[in-house]
Design goal:
Blueprint (H helix, E strand, L loop, with lengths): L7 H21 L3 H25 L16
Length: 72
């Protein structure tokens, strides 16, 4: 399953895991330019996690309580 196919909260968790993995790679890296790249990637994954969490908290059309819908 692709990350984009996951529900927003699961996607956010996966993005956080990827950010942590990049931070760990950066910590283990001796070359400053490679370390910086890992940290940039970690920041990117962290931003994606935040965005996915925002989407998880935003109601989507069709998710509203059906009892609130007008009677047909």
């Amino acid at each position: 399953m692709e990350i984009g196919d996951l529900p927003p909260r699961q996607r956010a968790t996966r993005y956080k895991d990827l950010a942590q993995a990049q931070r760990e790679l950066a910590d283990a890296c001796d070359l400053p330019e490679i370390r910086a790249t890992h940290l940039e990637l970690a920041a990117m994954w962290a931003r994606l996690a935040e965005e996915a969490e925002r989407h998880a908290d935003t109601p989507r059309p069709g998710d509203a309580d059906e009892s609130a819908a007008p009677a047909a």
